[in-house]
Amino acid sequence: MSVRVRFAPSPTGFLHIGGLRTALYNYLFAKHHGGECILRIEDTDQTRYVETAEKAIIDMCRWAGFNFDEGPEQGGKYGPYRQSERTELYQTHASILIENGAAYYAFDSADELEKMRERQQKAGLAPKYDRSIMRNQTTLGEEETSRLLAEGEPSAIRLKVPHSGEIRFSDIVRGEVVFAARDIDDQVLLKSDGYPTYHLANVVDDHLMEITHVIRGEEWLPSTPKHCLLYEAFGWEKPKFAHLPLLLNPDKSKMSKRHGDVFVEDFKNKGFFAEALVNFIALCGWNPSSDREIFSMNDLIEHFALEKVNKAGAIFDYKKLEWMNNQYFRSYDPAVLAPELLEVLKNYVYPTVSADYAAQVIKLLRERISFVADIPTFGDYMFVRPVSFDEEYKSKHWKPETHANIAPLVGIFESLSDFSNQSLHDTVHAYTTEKQIALKFIIHPLRLMITGKQVGAGMFETMEVLGKKEVLARMKVFLENNQ
Ligand code: GLU
Hints:
The chain has 4 domains: 1-73 and 245-331, Rossmann fold (3-Layer(aba) Sandwich), CATH 3.40.50; 88-190, Glutamyl-tRNA Synthetase, Domain 3 (Glutamyl-tRNA Synthetase, domain 3, Alpha-Beta Complex), CATH 3.90.800.10; 333-382; 391-481, Orthogonal Bundle (Arc Repressor Mutant, subunit A). Helices cover 46% and strands 9% of the residues. The chain contains 21 helices and 11 strands. A 3-stranded antiparallel β-sheet has the order 3-4-7. It has a two-stranded parallel sheet with strand order 1-2. A two-stranded antiparallel ribbon has the order 5-6. It starts with a strand and ends with a helix. It binds glutamic acid.
């Protein structure tokens, strides 16, 4: 049987970075096995529904570099792929459970349920639906139940969870998992408004869509015993389960908005490359059993294995992600990135530069920074003459004798026909040897005069990109103002 997996987000807002990892692992697993990865929109909770969320989720997955084989956009033979368009199916299936005694009608009002919870809280008990005392099919009997239903009394359908025994299942990541039945609530399956809860809809769809592996976040682990009971009640074969470890902050706390970026959009807007983010997130929880860290999407598909997903929470190391971004930044053709820089430059009042110049600046500065978007601030001097000069740097490297050491270089540079990095390097070295001065007494003043800053790329490379005319102009102005 061919592998079929699904990514089943609820459209409640932006795609969380953990959601992207779940989607990615599903995709990698499916493609590794030559199977299908489908997108199912779990939109049965109308109170949390956000209209723009579905598109935003799809857009982010596409940006990350993967597409689904079936889903609300492209359709497929197991559709519809939005749960809100499948309500009848869930109602029919809830009735099957009533018929075979695995579920029952419950008539309790919100008020009655609240009182039950209060009583349990006072008695120090965990909140749980108390089947034996509430107003439901098991306490009222068949006749009364039929009468209430006929009268149109609002009713929910609940799962009849056994009072004792164990529910076991094996998880590809976590091994054998056991839950005591007494800890499991009589879950509402169909609400009084006719809408299913997540549990019923999820199981019915996974079965009808012939899902072979359920790969999802660890937060869904406590739901799985309920799902197992449902599969048994329907007489269906269970899919295989794999629950992915939580993503944690470096201090081991759960990753949340309070600690920084959590939505894929945030990372995209910050200027992370999709390939870098995907590479990084793939390694949050999956261990490729080697020191290798750079994986393209195809490499990931080739090497990915659920058996190598860790149980322990995965640390989301932002610094590492930045490092990863820089690795990709360095590997791209600068000419391909140039339009991105030109776009970013529109936010600054710098003179216009050519795409070729933009590419040269990228090549120069990507050794030092990780984002295209940082170039206009980190390397402002590549676009405008410096107007301020780092005071600390200046006091350290502009001494009374510096002017006399530097001034002859203006003429020397002026006579150069080759203003390349190599030629500048050779020229300055010949000059310092002849004058018997240490190279640092030239390099730092040059950097100060030309860039105004202490940190930057290699000085001769920087000068080459700026060009002879501009370098000489900056040197002359500075020498004039600092006699
Ligand atoms: N709709 C659930 C979510 O938002 C799906 C969980 C599952 O994959 O079963 O993540």
